[in-house]
Specification:
By secondary structure, the protein is mostly beta strands. About 15% of the residues lie in helices and about 45% in strands. The chain is built from 4 helices and 22 strands. The strands form 5 sheets. Strands 2, 4, 5, 7, 8, 9 and 17 form a 7-stranded mixed sheet that branches. A 5-stranded mixed sheet has the order 11-18-16-13-14. The protein starts with a helix and ends with a strand.
Length: about 280
């Protein structure tokens, strides 16, 4: 091989190696400990370097900014940044989603940017008040529920059965017994713990603290083969909400279920007795 051929091959290999580095080996990787945090919490961001660039700076960028807002000298193959929610947000308000990237800078060399990752900083606001039209509902009937935020207007309300959202949108609406019994096997007497929250703004991730709890019962009379009486015991403060007396539901084929409210400690276990009405 002539010296000219050797130089040509050498230059080609050098160019190929540089191109290979620029396409994959020089791209840092950004890892976030959580993609959602509450206002006041801290998130860990790790910028992983593909090559040993110790002595240079790892740089962290927000959104499409050309200027880094955090720098850290690399002492190994990765740089860890611990940011509070306020440091993460910068000029953006609580409830924003912040997109982040990192790169590496050493003397005259600057790597390409990492992939972008978003972190949402959730905010909270005061609790609403939840009221319900009645405490007992059959699967095909509906109950009126109202979530009342301490604000004139809000973006939307969310209604929860325990931790599961059963409805969202309007703050005053009707919810069917089937919606309240989401994912539950049909049973004669199903207790449902209902709460609500609201989101005050359309474009911000701000969610209220939960409302007061309301205990409802989904009564499926079709599960009864003959007249059945079920007793529900509630605590003193809940007894006022339930009122005194009894509720009777008629099944599709004629059987009835009578609900009687008694004073005592709250129990989720139904106490039913079969007999003539």
């Amino acid at each position: 091989m002539s010296s000219v051929d050797f130089l040509f091959v050498s230059d080609w290999l050098t160019g190929w190696t540089a191109a290979a580095r620029s396409t994959w080996s020089e791209v840092p990787k950004l890892i976030v400990s959580s993609h959602e945090i509450e206002d006041g919490e801290t998130v860990k961001l790790t910028c992983i370097l593909p090559i040993d660039y110790r002595g240079g700076d790892c740089r962290l960028f927000r959104q499409n900014s050309q200027s880094p807002f955090k720098l850290k000298t690399a002492t190994e193959y990765s740089c860890d940044f611990y940011l509070t929610s306020q440091q993460l947000l910068g000029p953006q308000p609580v409830g924003s989603r912040v997109y982040l990237q990192c790169d590496y800078h050493l003397q005259q060399y600057t790597s390409v940017l990492s992939d972008s990752h978003g972190v949402t900083v959730w905010g909270s606001c005061p609790s609403p008040a939840l009221s319900v039209g009645r405490r007992f509902v059959s699967p095909d009937d509906s109950v009126e529920v109202t979530c009342s935020p301490p604000l004139r207007s809000v973006h939307r309300c969310l209604f929860y059965r325990d931790e599961v959202i059963v409805a969202r949108g309007s703050c005053s609406r009707n919810i069917t017994g089937k919606e309240l019994a989401i994912w539950e096997k049909s049973t004669m007497l199903l207790p449902v713990n209902l709460t609500c929250r609201y989101m005050p703004y359309e474009h911000l991730y701000i969610l209220s603290k939960p409302s007061n709890h309301n205990l409802l019962f989904v009564v499926d009379a079709t599960q009864a083969s003959s007249p059945v009486e079920c007793r529900v015991s509630v605590e003193d403060e809940q007894l006022v909400a339930f009122g005194g007396g009894s509720w009777t539901f008629a099944g599709a084929d004629g059987p009835t279920v009578t609900i009687q409210v008694t004073n005592g400690s709250l129990t989720f276990n139904e106490t039913c007795s079969t007999g003539s009405k």
